[in-house]
Queue: 4 jobs
Job 1
Amino acid sequence: MLIAHVSPRTMGKTTNAAFLAHAMHERGYPMIGYDADHSQQLTRWDAKAKFPFPVLGAASETFHMNVPKTLPPDTIGMIDCGHAEDHVGVTSSVLRCADLAILNSSPSTADLYRIRDLPMRKVLDDVAPLRLDSKPPETWVLLNRCPPQSNSKAVPDARKWFAKRGWNVFTTTVPFLQQYSQAIPFAVKGAGSHLDELVTEMKDRGLIP
Ligand SMILES: Nc1ncnc2c1ncn2[C@@H]1O[C@H](COP(=O)(O)OP(=O)(O)OP(=O)(O)O)[C@@H](O)[C@H]1O
Ligand SMILES: [Mg+2]
């Protein structure tokens, strides 16, 4: 199965892709990371931190033709995309074959408006006719870099904003914490992170085996 991290611009994709891949690896899922970003941040992070699973370069508009056939059965491919604003061809190619798309966003209005204005919904809908099932990939929003204060209205407001526009939003959120902001280029521990909670939620929702 292929899980794609997407967003119009810098919105936490690489950090969440790396932590989620580690959390899943630690739970026994065979993992491969795919770096579908020309900036190769995930590749450079792996080179320094030595991830316990392979990370393969895949920033190409032919991703859908080349990558799925290389993925061993029962292995999860975690894909880190680049900016959909600048490299929509690569993101669209990834979305043609992704089983699950995770739209990363902070709860800030700047990020929400960017998702609206790209428009991210259209990027997902446009790939539908090019997919085997003729539907857009199942897509869930992962709110990240959230204010850690429990009295902040940012997360509930962002949830409402997405829900009103028909997006699925994960219950799990990732707070703005030094643990994540300083993660690159160090080794990653998925267990105990918010991304480990996300694995539980994804399982409970039937999104992953
Ligand atoms: N939960 C978090 N708390 C604090 N800082 C975070 C968190 N998640 C990511 N960051 C920081 O935010 C910045 C952007 O994150 P990241 O590089 O993962 O985004 P991206 O979407 O992959 O960006 P790009 O598209 O430019 O590659 C980085 O400096 C990262 O360390
Ligand atoms: Mg990145």
Note: Strands lie at 2-6, 31-36, 55-57, 76-81, 100-105, 138-146, 168-169, 174-175.
Job 2
Amino acid sequence: MRALLLFDEGRLELGEVPVPEPPPGWALVRTLASSAGLFHSQMASGMLDTDGFPRILGHEVVGEVAAVTSEAAPPEGSRVVLDAVVGCGVCEWCIRGEESICPWMRHLGIDVDGGFADYVIVPESNVFGIPADIPVEEAVMMGSALPAAVHAALRSGVGGGSKVIVSGVGSIGMMLCQAARAMGAAVVVAADVAEDHLEAAGPWIDRAVNVSDLAADEAASLLCEALDAPYGADVVFEAAGQPASVDVSIRSVRSGGTVLLMGICDGAASISFDHYLSEFLRREVSLVTTFGFTRRDFLVGNALYRTGKLDLSPLLGPTVPLDEVPEVLAAIAAGGTGGKRYVVDVAMG
Ligand SMILES: [Zn+2]
């Protein structure tokens, strides 16, 4: 089969490899489409460990079941989307339904081979049937981007009437704006340094604030003003993955509010306060971290999509063939994504 292989030092090469043999309890899925975004460009640059090379990236996968053994799994030929989080299924976290923090968790397209190939294998419990009338391009985002946003939204406690700031409105940030809205947020303000991101987020936010070149206190004050919340936001989602954004996020949340951290800062990160007690400690702020999602978030995200409250289409970038992915990732590394996710056509037909 064709596979786009990532080698050490970020070299990507389209090659031929054997079709993988599913171990007992795993399904063989024929890939229709995958996605390419900032995350893949960060993977290729070595920001995250791949647990060995060569690795096939691609964590958002829509496909068709080629082979399964369980009667409970979607039958051969069905259209499916894959849950990218592969928990061990045995440990205490997996038993609690917290696969995303399973110490033995593996992630499709990170430390097990993903969807930049004609076939992919996953546990049969990670294969979910979807109606064939959902556009493949949108279904791609139901595999990871959507459940990751749902996971963050549920962990943040966002709910009816919440005043929310989303710092960093790339594709995940934009999905957070929508998820927060769908869960009852009253006001959503977006912060970013890229004007095109803020414009793209327009349909789902009340106001946008460009925080370029602003000191953290200044940015926080403008955000709270835009939110009409002089004492700060109920929930701030940090989805930019920049220490400056973490700093602004902690300064824009109200006392007793929650900062949900999901952006990936590269390497070391630190925040400092002139007065630790008054600026931070006594405000009783909840700092909640998140990475990935659980099967519950996957099901909630898919159910939310089916209600029609989400519109994933504006997040879609161009559709590109598998062999153009290296160029796309290089372009993303150089110029960002404009808040869009490329769809990788593996065999969309
Ligand atoms: Zn586990």
Note: Residues 2-144+293-345 form a domain with the Quinone Oxidoreductase; Chain A, domain 1 fold (CATH 3.90.180.10).
Job 3
Amino acid sequence: MAKKKVVLNFPPQLIDQPITYRLVKDYDLVVNILRARITPQEWGRMVVELNGNGSRLDEAMNFLADLGVVVEPLAGEILWQEERCIHCTACISPCPTHALNLDRTTMTVAFDRERCIACELCLNVCPYRAIEVAFE
Ligand code: SF4
Ligand code: SF4
């Protein structure tokens, strides 16, 4: 058995296709969706863990590439180091899922890990290195 954590990037025309179903049915994979952001008319992004036979996993990767799904390895989990954060809000607008968000009552920034799709758009924005990747 092989295991792989990857990020699947779907072009808009594939958003409504049953791709994860095909991975399960045609390639005998166990698909664990860790995070997803799917918006009509836009690219979708899904962080998944795939488990299955090694050669079937390779075939599934080829299937995805042929369809036009861009597959990236997941570098690691995003970590937010609260003690380094000065709540400057620079990371709020680049974050597409509002995983980094501002509480307007307290004017403090918080990180919602469940919303993070590991797109890394916030990484180079933070001047205080409060956002890092935890490599696996
Ligand atoms: S990696 Fe950063 S920008 Fe991307 S979803 Fe996670 S917190 Fe937001
Ligand atoms: S950019 Fe860095 S310091 Fe500024 S709010 Fe975001 S995490 Fe905090």
Note: Residues 45 and 71 are 10 Å apart (CA to CA).
Job 4
Amino acid sequence: MRVGILGDGLTSLTLAKALVNLNINVEVYSEKKKQIIDQSRTIGITKSNLEFFSENIINIEKIIWKLNKIEINSQKLPREELIKFENNNDQLFSMVRNNKLYEILETNLKKNKFYKISYKKNLLSILDKHDLIINLNPLNLVSKKFFSNKIKKNYQSVAYTAHLKHNKIKNRTASQIFTKIGPLAFLPLSHTETSVVYSINKSNFIKKEKFIELINYHNSKYDIKEIIKISSFQLNSINLRSYYYKNILAFGDLIHKIHPLAGQGFNMTIRDIKILLKIIKNKIELGLPIDTSVNQEFQNKIKHTNFIFSNGIDFVYEFFNIDRKIKNNALIKSLKFLGKTESLNKIFKKIADKGLIY
Ligand SMILES: Cc1cc2nc3c(=O)[nH]c(=O)nc-3n(C[C@H](O)[C@H](O)[C@H](O)COP(=O)(O)OP(=O)(O)OC[C@H]3O[C@@H](n4cnc5c(N)ncnc54)[C@H](O)[C@@H]3O)c2cc1C
């Protein structure tokens, strides 16, 4: 069986590694000679996804930083904790640097006899060379031709990311503050380094100097020595209407792109990989061909759940967006009340860890 993967980003290599582990021949098609992974980007992986990743894809214990508490606060209620999630000192989720994850996957794949990487401009010419094509690149010709029908929302926001170098501190708690201009997350990477993601509404467009000033203003925990690796990204959400066209399956951020405020984008993709692997393994065991039926089954199993999950994240975004525009504290106080309700807190934690199917 031969699978072609279009794109050589993080998700492409993750998926390629999951498939070569099943002794499936995978050819990754890149449109650039060298993939450059942004040094400022980090990903929070949930506990159950990390377990799946290490067992079925590659062991990443060496490059992760485990967190056991998440604090959520609002600038409207200073000195009051809005919601907290913790796991009796056990890990809740783990942070990993995108470039380190990419490196470990690339190094391992290069040594694998089932893996091949090719550089190709005309992707339309290779579509029938493989039993299954998995497309991850939203910008290629295949996406333009077959995957342009989508529900798209422009958040009119920019995510600024950076790394803080600071004096040593016990650093196992992530925190998110819903500020007047958008959510700001502090995501620990070690006892001396923390990554920052600040999603800011475009109407409050700021320059680099102002971004640094705002980090310092909202930071109450770190003794910052240096702020490095500053980058920025436009934010939008996408839900693709159809996940496949014949033997071509769209995957990753191409089928569901979400706001980063809950750190769930890549986690959704890991859950998708889990389902795709199960379908493929089943077919192999039953001696059935790996063809369009895989795509059909995958879409039937996960599309509606992904849509509900994406909308849930969007709801959270809109909730805080409305809250920051109104003057009183009624909404935020009711959220604080809900967050303190133990059964609800448990449900939120479970959904964030395992998604909607558990
Ligand atoms: C600020 C931020 C923070 C995030 N934090 C989290 C988190 O904590 N947890 C979590 O689960 N998720 C998080 N996400 C989502 C996560 O980062 C993405 O799901 C993941 O990085 C997708 O990576 P990718 O390389 O597969 O996708 P993409 O970057 O969309 O790339 C897809 C493919 O398209 C190709 N491609 C893309 N652009 C180009 C181009 N210009 N030219 C040529 N080819 C191109 C690449 O080769 C790649 O194969 C966050 C996202 C953002 C923006």
Note: Residues 7-12, 31-32, 43-44, 136-139, 159, 161, 197, 233, 252-253, 260, 263-267, 269 surround flavin-adenine dinucleotide (CB under 6 Å).
